[in-house]
Amino acid sequence: MAELGADNPILGCKFQGCLSSEYEGLNNEDFFLAIQHPLQKETLKKFGKEIVCVDSTHGTNSYNFKLITVLVVDDFGEGFPVAWCISNQEDFTVLRKNFY
User: Fold this and answer.
1) What predicted TM-score, i.e. pTM, was given to this entire model?
2) What is the spatial order of strands in the sheet that 79-87 belongs to?
3) Region class of 86: left (phi > 0), else alpha (psi between -120 and 50), else beta
4) Distance between CA atoms of residues 32 and 30, nearest Å
5) Lower Cβ count inside 10 Å, N or C end of the chain?
6) What one-character-per-residue DSSP string does 7-74 give?
């Protein structure tokens, strides 16, 4: 994935059972996968100065992972997803790691 460079849609990934200084604040059993398409990145830059919404969906799988969606409001007043994160955590540590 490293060869994709700036076009890499994976913002971050930590598997359960892995610890690294890169993932400070996350526990051994924590998992996250954060995804952002280059178009989503550009949309966030364009509309992210006004309104940014974060939503978390629970109970969609047997692993108790949450789907965290980051949205902005576009020119038409519609919500546009600009990033997703699948994780067993939904606290500031996971959000900061992937979206700041």
Assistant:
1) 0.83
2) 10-14, 32-35, 79-87, 66-73, 52-57
3) beta
4) 7
5) C
6) G--EEEEE-TT---GGGTT--TT--EEEE--HHHHHHHHHHTTT-EEEEEE-SSSTT--EEEEEEEE-
Cα–Cα separations (whole angstroms), residue 52 to 3, 9, 61, 87: 30, 20, 26, 20
pLDDT digit string, tens, across residues 28-80: 999 999 999 999 999 999 999 999 999 999 888 888 999 999 999 999 999 99
Question: CB-based contacts of 6: which residues, under 8 Å, 6+ apart?
Answer: 38
Q: What's the full length of the chain, in residues?
A: 100
